[in-house]
Amino acid sequence: MPRPWRRRHLGTEADRATFRTLHNASLAAPPLRAGLTGESAERSIRHLHDLLGSPALAITDTAGSLAWHGSGQHHEEQCARLAATTVEAGRTRVFDRGDLPCDVAGCEIRAAVVSPLVTEERVVGTLQVFAAQPTAGLARAADEVALWVGAQLELAELDASRTRLMEAEVRAMRAQISPHFIYNSLGAIASFVRTDPDRARDLLTEFADFTRYSFRRHGEYTTLAEELRSVERYLLLEQARFGDRLRVTLRIAPEVLPVAVPFLCIQPLVENAVRHGLESAEGGGSISIVARDQDHECVIEVEDDGVGEDPDVVRRALAGDASLDSVGLGNVDGRLRSTFGDDYGLVVETAPGAGTKVTVRVPKFAPGVEVGVLS
C-alpha cells in the first residue's frame, strides 16, 4: 500500500529565516531598479520592513520622506530633519528619544537608526529604521540593508545610462542615413511623375513610410519583421534609381520574424552594400538577404557581389573610425555587443574584387530585450 502523505519538515529555523530574507530581498529589488522615486519607495518599503522586522521604516530622498511603513506614522514629519543630519554627516547616525519628541501615549518609537543611501559615491537618500531602542545589531542590519538598496539604485543608474547611450547611438545612426539617398530617391520619384504617375505615387508612399520608420519615436528594439520591412522599402527606392542594375534576393524564414533586434541594425548594412559594393560596380550587381533559424539563434546575412573592400578598412570601420565613409558599421557592431554580449558582434567577410558578406547573429530570446511600442 502507498504510504500516506505527510507534510515534511522544511529545514531548520535558520534555513527558513534565510529563505524569508532572500524572498523579501527579491521582492524589493525590482521596484528599486527603477530608481529612487516615491513610487519605487512605496512598492519596496513593505518588503524592506519585513526584512528588518522593526516597528517602522521610512525611505527618504535628501529632502524628505518618500514612503513610511509600520506604526507611529506621526513621526514621519521628523524624517526630513533626520535625513538632513545624516546626509551632512555622510554616515549612519543613531537618534535617541531626545531627537524624536512624541506626546502620543503608548508610542513604541523612541529611537532611530538612519543610514545613507549611496550611489556612485553620492548620497541620494536615507533608510530610517525606527525602534523602541537602538542596538548594535539594529545599526548593523540597517547599514547592510542600506548598502544593498544603494547597490540596486546603482544598477538603476547603469540601466538609465545604458538607455541614454543606446538612444544617442540611434540618433547618430539616423544622422548617418545618406542625404544622397534622400536626394536620389526624390529625384527618381520625380522622374516617374510624367511617365508613370501610379509608380511615382507608390514610390512616394514607400519613401514616406521609410522615413517615418527611421525617424519616429520608438523603443530600443524592434522586430526583425519591422526592420526587414524598412529594408524592403529602401531597396524598392534604390531599384527605382538603378533599374535592372540592382538585383535583390530575400530568403526569410517565417519563424524568425518576431525576433527582437536593435532598431536600425540591418538597414545600414544593406545601405553599405549598395553604396560601397554596387554603386561603383560596372553593370551593377546583386544583393542577397537571408534570415534563418539556427537553434536558439537567428542568423541574418547581407551579401553583395560588388567591388569588395580592404579588410583593414573594415576593421577601422568596426572600431568606429569617423573618417571613413561607412554607414554605421561600428555603431551597429557596438549596439549588438552592448545588447547581447561580445559574442554577437558583426562578422564581415570581404576582399577587393570579392564582394562582401556581413553576418549578424542574435539570440531568439534575451533577458531585458523587449520590443517597445512604436509611435
From TrEMBL:
Domain Histidine kinase/HSP90-like ATPase: 261-366
Keyword Kinase: yes
Keyword vocabulary terms for this entry: Kinase, Transferase
GO molecular function: kinase activity
Superkingdom of origin: Bacteria
Name of one Pfam family that matches: His_kinase
PANTHER family: SENSOR HISTIDINE KINASE YPDA
Protein name: Histidine kinase
